Amino acid sequence: MSSDSRPPFRIGQGWDTHRIESGRPLILAGIRIPSEFGFAGHSDADVLFHAVTDALLGALALGDIGVHFPDSAPEWKGADSLQFLQHALKLVTDRGYELINVDTSVLLERPKLKDYRPRIRESLAGALNLSTANVSVKFKTGEQVGPVGEGRSCEAQAVVLLSALLQRR
Ligand code: C5P
Ligand code: MG
């Protein structure tokens, strides 16, 4: 029997929400979307990177983004959320896993995002060292109901699958 006690696969899910505010940038996976309003937040408020970061941390059962990057800490004010994602990705490798695929949803009433899907997917794939074939980005409105539907917030959801790397002998 193998002495390797790591599960062969680990699944993780992440969710994030940000308030919509006029004059703030609307950034999804590092891509700036032209819009008069954007997302409020302590960092750059990249709701999609935040959800994927939490999904990676969740797959490893290593807490959440706030444990690793407290929003009370001045060094993270206006931070580029790519560094949060890269931190989580390094933990994946450190724990002996590789990322297989990512599936995400962005819930936003407007603007329409579908024309930006290729750029957002490419950016997310690049940040995660994945082929775009293994990166899914879906968009949904809130059907004019609730905080998303009333245009008061944006939500992002992410699911990731990790696979154990072969143990070096
Ligand atoms: O929410 P609903 O099902 O009506 O969305 C229809 C389609 O509109 C989605 O499949 C998605 O591709 C697109 N969409 C978009 N930008 C949004 C919300 C939805 O491009 N902010
Ligand atoms: Mg966030």
What are its keywords?
two-stranded antiparallel sheet; 27% helix; single chain; 169 residues; alpha+beta; binds magnesium ion; five-stranded mixed sheet; binds cytidine-5'-monophosphate; 5 helices; 60s Ribosomal Protein L30, Chain: A
Give your account of this protein's structure:
By secondary structure, this protein is α+β, with helices and mostly antiparallel strands. Strand 2 (27-28) and strand 3 form a beta hairpin. It has helices spanning 47-59, 65-68, 82-94, 117-128, 146-149; strands spanning 9-22, 27-28, 31-32, 37-39, 97-107, 135-140, 153-164. The longest helix has 13 residues, at 47-59. The protein contains five helices and seven strands; from the N terminus they run ββββαααβαβαβ. The strands form two sheets. The protein has a five-stranded mixed β-sheet. Strands 2-3 form a two-stranded antiparallel ribbon. 36% of the residues are buried. It has one domain (22-164): 2-Layer Sandwich (60s Ribosomal Protein L30, Chain: A), CATH 3.30.1330. Bound molecules: cytidine-5'-monophosphate and magnesium ion. Cytidine-5'-monophosphate binds at residues 108, 110, 112-114, 139-141.
